[in-house]
Amino acid sequence: MTPQHIELVKATVPVLRENGVALTSYFYKRMLNNNPDLKNVFNLDHQSTGRQPRALAAAVLAYAEHIENPSVLAKAIEHITTKHVSLDIKPEQYSIVGENLLHSISEVLDVPMESDLIAAWKAAYLQLADILIGVEKSKYEALAAENGGWAGWRAFVIRQVETTEAGQRFTIAAQDGQAVVAAKAGQYISVKVKVPGHDIEQPQQYKFDADQSGSQFVFEVKPEENHTEYSVSNILLNHYKAGDLVQVSAPL
Ligand code: HEM
After folding, report:
1. Could you tell me which residues are beta bridge partners of residue 188?
2. What pLDDT, on a 0 to 100 scale, did the predictor assign at position 54?
3. Where does a domain end: 124, 145, 166?
4. Is the same domain home to 125 and 24?
5. How many Å is the Cα radius of gyration of the chain?
6. 86 lines ligand 1 (CB under 6 A)
7. Three-state DSSP class for 153?
8. Residue limits of the Globin domain (predicted)?
9. What is the CATH number of the domain that holds 38?
10. Catalytic residue among 125, 136, 206, 230
């Protein structure tokens, strides 16, 4: 990035932050309309409850603020890349997010896509995307190299569903019958289900209450009130039973 790029980006962060809700809603709407495949990637229940969707755009703004010293954001980068790897986010998806984010910035700031300002934001986004893609690549490689490990999604069969005080406990094993990597209490997996009545899959993270070792994972699912038909927990509780398949990413 040139010094002019840095100045332009930093000068517009406060305006974008003030318009954070407009930026984020415009961004997601545009991106999901133009790339309906991403409806399988982003949690639509989170989008509609407004719980999470601000995080991505907010992280880009936070990064832009510290553009001269991105090491300030090391902790955030670790957190984001861990979440992304759990969701099997791919390098090529960064250009889709980037394009939509830049269009949204152009819309919110009311400047043309061809302006110097958008060129500056593009340079900033590409710099951040490069950092994230690099960290995610090494995380995928580390996961795949572990004994019983894998990168991306792997099919698991539900072996058992038990009722608990708060919900249901699911025991799952890899469909291929091979070993699965051990995990510690507090680590999480993403579980992806088919949404009944829609041609869509949805992921959600589940944390382990206890260490996991051997050939299966055990996690508890609790019902979610006031959620949409995309709530993965409610789908698991109401529609999934022993013998059914789910897609699972490796513990992180
Ligand atoms: C520079 C680019 C990006 C930044 C700064 C970024 C930042 C973030 C942040 C801060 C979160 C929230 C983490 C949490 O849950 O605590 C997140 C989650 C997520 N990101 Fe990214 N992200 C970027 C690119 C991408 C790309 C390219 C994709 C794939 C299309 C993606 C997909 C997701 C998904 C699916 C989630 C989970 C959100 C949910 O479903 O609730 N992100 N990202």
Report:
1. 207
2. 66
3. 145
4. yes
5. 20
6. no
7. strand
8. 1-137
9. 1.10.490.10
10. 136
Reading phi first (left if > 0) and then psi (alpha if -120 to 50, else beta), residue 197 is in left
Tell me, yes or no, whether 140 and 18 share the same domain: yes
Residue 221 CB-density burial (10 A; 0-12 exposed, 13-18 middle, 19+ buried): buried
Q: Residue type for 248, please?
A: V
Residue 239: domain span: 153-249
Indicate the helix (H) or strand (E) that contains 159. strand 153-163
Query: What is the tens place of the pLDDT at every residue in 43-55?
Result: 888 766 555 556 7
> Is the minimum distance from the CB of 103 to ligand 1 under 6 angstroms?
no
* Other CB atoms within 10 A of residue 199 CB: 9
Average pLDDT on 225-234 reads 89
94 is catalytic: yes
Using a 10 angstrom Cβ sphere, with 0-12 exposed, 13-18 middle and 19 or more buried, the burial of residue 120 is buried
Name the packing angle between helices 93-109 and 20-34 (round to 10°). 130
- Check if 225 is active-site: no
